[in-house]
Write a sequence for this structure.
């Protein structure tokens, strides 16, 4: 005998809305899940999706990252055979150049190039300066052509009135790729597909 | 020429030439329990439906037919984690059932358009088949399916960096790189009970010195783009058709440009053939909004549904209806063409080489089936054709190729990636450069924190908070965010992911430093970012990490 044939006659009347809500609640709480080897989460604290969302938003709002540093620093990153990338922080109380003091106190990025890092600070080191005239504390640097050095370092500092270069910070040493020139030119028409990455999943152009 | 000895297995056979097909399967960690449903989780569901499940179908059929194929599949740790995740598995079933429901509605809607209805029925069968493989055959565990095929010795599984961090730009800190590499390998081991011999460098991003980190992690080979080998420290004697030894027991294989172009090239590549299904023609964008509302985003924003009725057709022509039989025939032709061209290459190369050449053909896995609908069938045809004994092209895994070589030329590859223009420019430019000072600073703070707590007796709560901080760092480092910011697809989402993960790190860092850890908040972060359950924050203190030596070769 099935439940329907049992003659059970409930005295509880439920509206369509109530039935829907019960159905949704059961569906939400009792939908079968695959069991897997994922780590067990903390059992004693249960959080709804709304609570998770609120905590996520609160942390995102109150703890947003800022680039602030009291210690001057400069970092180099390799880009390609013809470019490197620098970002820096000059610390506190060291303002960048303004039109009034353009030629003195000019914030400058000095790029050192050397055949290899073993020879840093020897007489073989050459360098060139880039005057910093933009508010962003980062920029791409074009390397001199032809590129025959592969190791680079940098210093961030200022030129003073007496033309002395005062260094605030020295960077890490990086190697730019050698980059066979013939290949580099040919590569433009090669096999790379800019939209190939799976990160574009589900996104229509 | 300096060479490095590699042990040769006894059963090595001398063949005319080898082809190694490598698929790299990766998606960023898209899991949002803080929402009842979330659009970007569809990236995973679409890839599962259109790529991973059909690929498993291919492997199952090859096994049933006893085809002696070889294939390498790289599974990223983020993808591995998502495929094993309860929440995503449950949500995937819901997604698949909704596709099935839509296909059934389409059969009714197209009842007066027989050609369209035929396709609607095809989609219904397609989704039913996916459901059957997923639920019935593998009980929702796709990793078990891949493991099963790995155990046959025909499928080689490898992995990549933990969250697909772009290593050349994380290399400001070697600890950051080591944690990406080691956490990735640990995740693989935890899920497959074995150590990968190969490693997929995210975006093929290599810099000289990275081979040391890989060797320390027990890796035997990795891949670089063509110019990584062609511009190596020594001119490669065999071009890109033999690996080079980095001098520390690790070998580098290069991508073959010819086979890449045939598949990747937007102009010359197979996927652009006029007979193939058009990816950008989807009923999510074409049908009446009221009708399609239940299957698009929030009932309003049009998105792909996976049901597409048209073929590529041709430039500036009205799209014609898709003909699956014609498309399949074309895929078979393209597979024959691919093998014939490899044979040609091998004939040409063999004459000038003292060893069998190896053609390495790596692709993003998601190209097959998702972007190129017929791609999985093409792959199946290629694997079947190449395994026929009449063919001079023999399939091989890079691991097995190394076993057959007694010596390799020693050189150091040049820094390179497989991105546009071949270097790091796609991941650092005016659209995404702002992320690097923040990522590097957070990494620095994490390392300092790990150093500062060394030797202190930590409570379980503090340990949990420290481990969660490490998870936040790794998730922020994913190469996908920089890529999306440059490609301009879902910029807001990429922005939010980076800033959220960094904010979560900042919050945890602050809580730990002040010893005011709110367990409720920590639990929320553990629930939201539940990846890498075995992570150990102590690995961020380089002085406490014992660098494991690579096991000696037998």
């Amino acid at each position: 005998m099935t439940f329907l044939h049992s003659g059970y006659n409930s005295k509880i009347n439920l509206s369509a809305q109530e039935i829907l809500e019960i159905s949704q609640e059961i569906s939400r709480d009792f939908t079968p899940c695959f069991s897997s080897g994922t780590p067990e989460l903390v059992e004693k604290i249960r959080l709804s999706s709304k609570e998770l969302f609120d905590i996520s938003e609160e942390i995102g709002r109150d703890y947003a990252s800022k680039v602030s540093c009291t210690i001057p620093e400069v970092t180099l990153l390799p880009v390609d055979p013809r470019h490197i990338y620098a970002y820096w922080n000059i610390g506190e109380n060291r303002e960048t150049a303004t039109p009034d003091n353009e030629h003195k106190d000019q914030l400058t990025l000095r790029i050192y190039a050397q055949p290899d890092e073993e020879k840093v600070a020897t007489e073989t080191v050459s360098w060139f300066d880039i005057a910093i005239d933009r508010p962003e504390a980062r920029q791409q640097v074009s390397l001199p052509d032809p590129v025959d050095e592969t190791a680079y370092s940098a210093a961030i500092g200022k030129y003073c009135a007496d033309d002395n270069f005062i260094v605030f910070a020295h960077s890490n040493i990086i190697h730019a790729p050698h980059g066979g020139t013939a290949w580099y030119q040919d590569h433009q028409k090669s096999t790379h597909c800019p939209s190939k990455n799976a990160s574009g999943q589900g996104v229509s152009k | 020429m300096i060479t490095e000895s590699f042990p040769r297995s006894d059963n090595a056979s001398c063949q005319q030439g080898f082809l190694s097909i490598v698929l790299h399967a990766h998606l960023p960690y898209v899991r949002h329990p803080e929402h009842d449903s979330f659009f970007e989780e569809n990236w995973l569901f679409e890839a599962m439906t259109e790529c991973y499940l059909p690929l498993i179908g291919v492997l199952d059929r090859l096994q049933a037919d006893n085809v002696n194929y070889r294939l390498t599949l790289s599974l990223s740790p983020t993808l591995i984690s998502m495929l094993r995740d309860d929440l995503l598995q449950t949500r995937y079933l819901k997604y698949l059932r909704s596709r099935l429901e839509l296909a059934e509605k389409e059969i009714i809607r197209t009842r007066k358009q027989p050609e369209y209805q035929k396709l609607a029925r095809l989609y219904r069968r397609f989704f039913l088949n996916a459901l059957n493989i997923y639920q019935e055959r593998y009980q929702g565990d796709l990793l078990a399916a891949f493991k099963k095929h790995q155990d046959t010795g025909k499928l080689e599984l490898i992995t990549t960096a933990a969250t697909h961090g772009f290593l050349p730009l994380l290399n400001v800190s070697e600890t950051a790189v080591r944690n990406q590499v080691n956490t990735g390998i640990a995740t693989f081991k935890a899920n497959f009970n074995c150590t990968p011999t190969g490693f997929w460098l995210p975006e093929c991003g290599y810099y000289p010195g990275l081979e040391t980190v890989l060797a320390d992690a027990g890796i035997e080979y990795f891949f670089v783009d063509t110019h990584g080998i062609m511009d190596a420290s020594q001119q490669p004697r065999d071009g890109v058709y033999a690996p080079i030894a980095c001098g520390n027991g690790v070998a580098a294989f290069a991508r073959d440009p010819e086979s890449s172009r045939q598949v990747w090239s937007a102009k010359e590549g197979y996927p652009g053939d006029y007979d193939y299904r058009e990816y950008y023609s989807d009923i999510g964008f074409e049908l009446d909004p009221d009708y399609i509302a239940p299957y698009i985003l929030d009932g309003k924003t049009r998105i792909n549904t996976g049901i597409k009725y048209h073929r590529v057709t041709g430039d500036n022509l009205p799209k014609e209806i898709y003909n699956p039989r014609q498309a399949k025939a074309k895929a078979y032709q393209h597979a024959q063409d691919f093998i014939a061209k490899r044979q040609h290459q091998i004939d040409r190369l063999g004459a000038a080489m003292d060893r069998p050449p190896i053609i390495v053909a790596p692709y993003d896995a998601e190209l097959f089936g998702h972007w190129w609908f017929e791609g999985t069938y093409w792959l199946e045809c290629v694997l079947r054709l190449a395994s026929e004994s009449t063919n001079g092209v023999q399939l091989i895994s890079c691991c097995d190729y190394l076993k057959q070589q007694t010596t390799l030329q020693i050189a150091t590859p040049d820094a390179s990636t497989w991105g546009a223009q071949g270097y790091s420019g796609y991941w650092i430019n005016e659209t995404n450069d702002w992320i690097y000072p923040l990522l590097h600073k957070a990494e620095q703070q994490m390392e300092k924190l790990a150093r500062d707590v060394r030797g202190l007796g930590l409570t379980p709560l503090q340990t949990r908070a420290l481990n969660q901080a490490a998870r936040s760092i790794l998730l922020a480092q994913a190469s996908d965010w920089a890529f999306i910011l440059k490609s301009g697809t879902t910029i807001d989402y990429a922005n939010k992911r980076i800033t959220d993960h960094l904010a979560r790190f900042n919050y945890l860092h602050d809580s730990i430093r002040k010893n005011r850890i709110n367990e409720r908040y920590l639990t929320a972060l553990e629930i939201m970012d539940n990846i890498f359950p075995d992570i150990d924050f102590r690995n961020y203190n380089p002085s406490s990490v014992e660098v494991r030596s690579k096991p000696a070769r037998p």
The longest strand of chain A covers residues 106-114. Chain A touches chain B through 68 residues (CB under 8 Å). The two ends of chain A are 58 Å apart (CA to CA). The first helix of chain A runs from residue 16 to 30.
